[in-house]
Amino acid sequence: MRALLATLLLLSLSMSGCLNGSSDSDGSNDIIVEQPGWQVGDWWLYTFSTPQFGEDSARLVVSDVSEDDGLYMLGISSEREAQRHAVINHNPFLGRVTMENLSVFENGEPQPVFNFPWTIGEEWEFTLLGQNWLAEVDFFAEGMAVINADSDDGHKLQYRFNGEWGFIQEFNWWNQDGESQLIMSLNSLGTDYEGDTWFIRATDLKDARYESTDNDVYDSFVDNGHPSGVNFDYLVWYLDVDIAGQGGSGSLTIKDHAGASPLTRAWGPGARESGAIGTIPSRTDEYSLTVSLRGQDSFIHLKVAGGIENHWVL
Questions:
Q1: pLDDT of 97 above 90
Q2: Residues of the chain by 3-state class (helix, strand, coil), percent to 5
Q3: Measuring CA to CA, which of 30, 215, 260, 271 is 20 to 30 A from 37?
């Protein structure tokens, strides 16, 4: 099956500027020369596996090429997946990618996750997924570079960049306890994608976990702060909820400064809601929260991000 998948992937790709390199008989290599040149419509279909959501699939698509800015824009073929990325950032390769070195952005700065030309044993640093990494090219065989990285906090990465296919073949992230945080596996790829794609530039506004209490909890967050200075198009919310079965209950209300309640939820005993996502209007002012939670071990985890939406029709 692996051989069949590899054959199908190779047949489906007709990209220009793929990586080239020489491989010794023992699988080692001295250097890989080129980085790929992407075109609008090139796409890669990945399966993502995370603790929050289990497995889901998403198609990354080269949605725009700006020669003036030196940037590719990678969109995604699902609006909901774009919203999910905006609030939990589980897809580090969605959005802006530099044409030089295919650097991805974190905290507004390009990060050299890839290091062309690949050289065995070379080390470099970058920030990704909230961690500072020291990476090294471990080996190269049959047009694929394998990179291992360790973070200051004891997290680990291993990812494989396939030169024939022009992007990542597999990406794995483990935390300091060895627990998998993200697996990203390539299923298929191609060119000339037709359809809608999205990318939402986001800023975190609220990340709070509320636990059972005898009294209601009152909280707030401010709807502004994108580094670009542009107002958000909307806010994206995320909820994880677990209510105790015996005597448990919970509710959450978000109100804007005008007194409107764009988000109101209530849960009964034994209720669970994992990874719920939605949007509410952006009012560029303060929002107030009221949380009511009863029952031992009950909790509500709320995340809110402000988003600026990019939408393409290819």
A1: yes
A2: 5, 55, 40
A3: 30
Q: Position of tokens 């069949």?
A: 4
Question: Rounded to 5 degrees, what angle do the CA atoms 101, 103, 105 make?
Answer: 165
Question: Range of 236's domain?
Answer: 201-309
Question: Closest Cα partner for 190 from 75, 55, 39, 76?
Answer: 39
DSSP per position, 1-56: -HHHHHHHHHHH---SS---B---TTS--SBB-------TT-EEEEEEEETTTEEE
pLDDT value at residue 285: 86
Tokens of 229: 């200075």
Whether the per-residue pLDDT at 14 is higher than 50: the answer is: no
Contact 31, 166 (CB under 8 A): no
142-157 pLDDT, tens digit per residue, is: 778 999 999 999 999 9
Give me the phi and psi of 136, to 5 degrees please.
Answer: -145, 140
Question: Does residue 171 sit in the same domain as residue 244?
Answer: no
> Distance between CA 171 and CA 62 in Å, rounded?
19
One domain for residues 50 and 97: yes
The whole-chain average pLDDT of the chain stands at 87
- Backbone CA torsion sign across 22, 26, 27, 29: negative
Domain end position, chosen among 150, 166, 194? 194
Residue 267 lies in a domain: yes
In total, how many domains does the chain have? 2
CA 280, 233, 237, 289 torsion-angle sign: negative
Dist CA 45 CA 145 (whole Å): 20
